[in-house]
Amino acid sequence: MTMHRDAVRRAWDAVADDYAAKRRADGEDAALIEDLLADLPADARVLDVGCGDGQRTLTNLVGAADALGLDFSRRQLELARGAAPDARLVQADMTALPVADGAVDAITAYHAVFHVSRSQHPAVYEEFARVLAPGGRLLMTVGAGRSDATRRNWLDSGHAMYWSTPGRRATVSQLDEAGFDVVWERFVDDPLGSQALFVLAERRP
Ligand SMILES: C[S@@+](CC[C@H](N)C(=O)[O-])C[C@H]1O[C@@H](n2cnc3c(N)ncnc32)[C@H](O)[C@@H]1O
């Protein structure tokens, strides 16, 4: 059942510290950022959507790119400020990015879009396409199966958390409709102990 966006934001404020304690800056999914950066120009502008505490993504982007971290959770942004002091940060919702059209060369969105109701995913991908320059790249985690569920007491935090995804095939179709070509889909180790599906997509010129 859909969990309201404000409730998801409050949940992230509440679980941010526990989640950060379970995350590191390295690992198979973090290494994908090196591949992304290798294909980008020097000083590329990279928007990290749902940056969270910054350990997984921003710390691997700063120094190699002009990184902007975006998250709607104030506590996550406080942790990101500590982890990646040189990154620019903004508090915003990924369904309405405070970024100009065509202003970024790449977007990373790790373990983030599936915390938004799947009914909103097409709007999120349209926003991603809007802010990316033609040929810009999107590297993101995708929910492999269909789900729309709330898990109580996530990470023994006492707070509920929400995941929502239409599944792999529908997501690839939504990306296509938003103007992306999928370059690859790949399962990689997830730092919380399972496997996560990642997609690299390119915005059509
Ligand atoms: C699972 S965490 C992942 C954090 C980070 N990307 C990582 O991989 O470590 C998901 C993040 O997405 C953020 N988020 C969820 N829904 C959002 C929304 N609608 N707009 C902006 N951020 C959102 C949460 O606050 C949280 O920080």
TrEMBL record:
Gene3D superfamilies: Vaccinia Virus protein VP39
Lineage, top ranks: Archaea, Methanobacteriati, Methanobacteriota, Stenosarchaea group, Halobacteria
One GO MF term: methyltransferase activity
Record-linked InterPro entries: Methyltransf_25, Methyltransf_Superfamily, SAM-dependent_MTases_sf
Keywords attached to this entry: Methyltransferase, Transferase
Name the UniProt record assigns to this protein: Methyltransferase domain-containing protein
Any one biological process term the GO annotation gives: methylation
Domain Methyltransferase residues, every copy: 46-136
Organism: Halogranum gelatinilyticum
Top-rank taxon, per record: Archaea
Transmembrane regions listed in the UniProt entry: none
